[in-house]
# Entry
Amino acid sequence: MAENTTITQSKETKDLLILLAQTQKKCGFLSEETLANLARTLDMSLSDVYGVATFYSFLSTKPLGRHVIRVCKSLPCHYKDAAVIIESLEKTLGIKTGETTPDGRFSLELTNCIGACDKAPAILINDDVHGDLTVDRIPQILQAYK
Amino acid sequence: MAKEIEVTLNDNKVTGAEGMTILDLARAKGIDIPTLCYVEDLLPTGACRLCVVEVEGSRTLVASCHTPIAPGMVIQTHSPRVIEARRQIVELMLASHPDTCLVCDKANICELRKIAADLDIGLPRFRTRKHYFAIEDVSPYLVRDMSKCVLCRRCIRGCNEIAKKNVLGMAYRGFDSKVVVDCDEAINTEACRDCDVCVSLCPVGALSKPRKVEEKRRGKVQVIKG
Amino acid sequence: MPEKRIVLRNCGVIDPRDMSSYLAHDGFKGLEKALSLTPEQVIEEVKTSGLRGRGGAGFPAGMKWELTRKSPGDEKYLICNADEGEVGTFKDRYILQNDPFSLVEAIAIAGYAIGAKKGFIYLRAEYHYLRPMLANAIDQARAKGFLSHMDIEIRMGAGAYVCGEESALMESIEGKRGEVRYRPPFPPTKGLFGKPTVINNVETLMNIPAIMLNGARWFNQIGTERSKGTKVFSVAGDVPRPGVYEMVLGSKLRELVQDLAGATDIKAIQIGGATGRLIPESMLDTPLAFENLLGAGAITVFNSHRDIIDIVYRTMEFLAEESCGKCVPCRQGTEVMVETLERFMHGEGEERDVKVLQELSSTMMLTSLCGLGQAAPNPVIDSLQYFKDAYESRIKARGEVKV
# Structure
């Protein structure tokens, strides 16, 4: 409970970005309907709400899987064979980057530097970092995400 | 009465009122600095960078439309460095602008073409991919061709500040940035009625009125180099 | 010059979850000292220390504080920039993971000095996993009464490198698109929600408790004439010992990448990430200081197997993806550069492309709205200066194929 004091925002939370992040967490993505509802609640134009939702790469206006895998493609990871990791993930999941598995379990995305360059190649699954990744470890890591 | 501030503008000592921008002062003194995103009645946004000038002691050029004058400023509005920068900025805009001036409705009144002609811009040195968006012509009031948009945001600011309708917004980011209606829908009569504010503000052919049969294209034919 | 730990003094020493462990290591003694002084005296101390911003620009921290303190108005804000997104940097992550308490203490001191009743920590979305521990540190400090004069709130980013730029960061805290604002007005006059605001990098703030405790004179004696104190670097890439190292400012790059990180095969080093500099091995003896080479502290080493054009292309691709898109030179310029470099990647680069890159670099530096666009051409400029053969050999190869 103690965490709540800092994690919840100050009373006047009319903050669009916080609400978008919360909504995405709850609904998995930001549908036109939820964006329209937010616009109404905040008395903003839908265009402006859509503008914020499409600016940030962690927000999505398209449906995502329950777990989002973000593979770092920036230089330190790239030169530690991120491409091999991407290929292996695509093969294991049977999808290409930018796609979601048919069962809705995983989405696979590429992302820019996640600040885990000392553990390259690294990926984020939801909020968790998995570094020093090897192809053999991938199935076991994925198992933890149902 | 606002305080008078003395600055050096193109080697002349001149004074202006505190709070004036460099652009205000230059225009008041009859110096023509080209602008694109700046419109007198709208809040400045600093997006196009066409109005940059040289200010002594500044590491970069500064945009005159939003930089207030300060005591002792030494300003050059047309130095070779400034002109070259302006040329490149226009060329950068042209790089992703469709080459459809011949058939564009705004061809003869296009501000981008006029600025390009004023700056004596020839064949483009920069190449980028173009934006291809379907022409939105479902509304009887306006036609949007976003592939021609230069992202000056005049329409958005006009819609917010003058028409007070907040129909338009900026979406996506970087090179993919786009002026959108709702969740990037084609503009229709539900979103927007006949107010014309945005159409009259658009410097290029991105926003226009549907041309009636037999109606002539507006403006004199412009002759442009290149 | 060896490693010296000021910023990282508690990393690996204290338990980052337990306040009592921090208190046992002089925790909050700096705040205690600060509160015994007037805010003006605290600012004077920071000014005397010579501490400069560690986020890359190197603006004197004390001066920023003073300007904000002197700005009229009761409502002021302190923002801690924890949006480290520069490619190859992870030092703030390491700091937050190992010593969140010092940061909270520093914010409390800064807030007292500038007269801010509210502080924000803007944490990048990629570091969401650090949030519970940081929140815990804030809660424990609050419970102990160390935050009686101000509150601290954590705000999350949502995936945008440009939000590390101070004006975009403020827009983002205000819940908007992370687009850059034009300046002036600067944050000390008109910042977050239009109020006077100080924005300090995590590492800048981490120096504050030690400066309060040991005095400005002590800090001022460390480093070079114009670069006081230490700098924390994250070293990655082709090195056997990637990691976070803290060195006295003025230390040589060689000591960092060879002696500490163990690099043996070096073709190029990227200093300061994507918008930083790209230099050859021959510059290894350059001192790491504001007056020479520094940036935000990201060091990526590339060995002789790496292709310079590939490095520059990928760096520029990153910048184009992360450009906010507001101003023409950055939005269009990064795209032109990516597409030009792409042609070199495919063996289609021409002599005139090199000229275009040079001309465009200068315009982007001179006219872009913010630091991102102004520094975006750096990798192109440096590669053309130090690794011109990478371009020339490709142009030549193209000619040979044609004949």
User: Anything to note?
Assistant: DSSP finds 18 helices and nine strands in chain C. The first helix of chain C runs from residue 19 to 23. Chain C has a mean pLDDT of 96.
